[in-house]
Amino acid sequence: MSIEKAFFGYVIDCDYCSNFLNCDVYDDFKSAIDMAKDKGWKMRKEDDEWVHICPVCAEIRKEY
Question: What is the tally of structural domains in the chain?
Fold first, then answer.
């Protein structure tokens, strides 16, 4: 899905389910990514697109 800039920070959507993460305390993209990784989110590039996966889906899909 995506990482979108919102008025309060960033929102990261899982590509496999409806989970999302509000990164509302960070103003810059790198800090939002760091926060997501600290919370167990996985991100990787597949073909020419970034894939974002929440901790629940990462546990189910062991390839992450």
Answer: 1
